[in-house]
Amino acid sequence: MAEHQVQATVNGQEVTAMVEPRLTLADFLRDRLRLTGTHLGCEHGVCGACTVLVDGAAIRSCLAFAVQMQGCSITTVEGLTPDSGELTDVQAAFRAEHGLQCGFCTPGFVVSATALLAERPDLTAAEVREGLSGNLCRCTGYQGIVRAVQSVIRSRQATGSGHEAEAGTAQAEAGAAQAEAGTARAAGVTGS
């Protein structure tokens, strides 16, 4: 099968790669770029474990093809983490509120919650549940997850930092890109 060149920004790093048209974005991220925080659960777009941000919108990477990402900006869970290595407020809240148990679904929830909070920083508990309803968890019962997102909302409202996540994501993209550059090249992907 003929390969096609795709150029995209992944976690702040410009990436150019040759990919088969049938290669999913999830497989590209995991196998070619070694960004294994993007988990594969159902591979049918149902569970949300593979959620990433594409141009700021949460998508299921198992349902998108890598070739569709031409010119896009992709952020994985690894790209959310600041250069300092500290947890984002969303990640810290998941830990503090026991919003994770086995951890398999956690990256998808963290990415989805990050996108949800960037879009609507003042959600009610019911709106959080609805906004995250596309992500499945078999362990937690969702209460800790909802508490975690509500905790972030309260914290951001108290400090007036509702837009902090957007700035943090941009900064994190640049730092994560530097860390992944060597791995991407080793996997046969060139950075520009």
Task: Outline the fold blueprint.
Layout lengths: L3 E7 L2 E7 L5 H8 L18 E4 L2 E4 L12 E3 L1 H4 L8 H8 L9 H14 L5 H7 L11 H17 L4 H23 L3 E2 L1
Parallel strand pairs: 1-5
Antiparallel strand pairs: 1-2, 2-6, 3-4, 3-5
Tell me what the structure shows.
- Helix content is 42%, strand content 14%.
- The protein is globular and about 50 Å long.
- It is an alpha+beta fold.
- A 6-stranded mixed β-sheet has the order 4-3-5-1-2-6.
- It has helices at 25-32, 77-80, 89-96, 106-119, 125-131, 143-159, 164-186, and strands at residues 4-10, 13-19, 51-54, 57-60, 73-75, 190-191.
- A hairpin with a 2-residue loop joins strand 1 and strand 2 (13-19).
- The longest helix is centred in the last third of the chain and has 23 residues, at 164-186.
- The chain has 2 domains: 4-82 and 172-191, Ubiquitin-like (UB roll); 89-167, DNA polymerase, domain 1 (Orthogonal Bundle), CATH 1.10.150.
Features:
about 190 residues; alpha+beta; Ubiquitin-like (UB roll); DNA polymerase, domain 1; 2 domains; 6-stranded mixed sheet; 7 helices; disordered C terminus
Summarize the model shown.
It contains seven helices and six strands, in the order ββαβββααααααβ. With 192 residues, it is an alpha+beta fold.
How many H/I helices?
Answer: 7
Mean pLDDT: 86
Number of separate structural domains = 2
- Determine the strand fraction and express it as a percent band: 5-15%
Low-confidence stretches at least 5 residues in length (pLDDT < 50)? 163-192
Determine Rg (CA atoms, Å): 16 Å
The largest β sheet comes out as:
6 strands, mixed
Helicity, as a percent range: 40-55%
- The CATH topology of the largest domain comes to Ubiquitin-like (UB roll)
Distance between the termini: 25 Å
Order of helices and strands: EEHEEEHHHHHHE
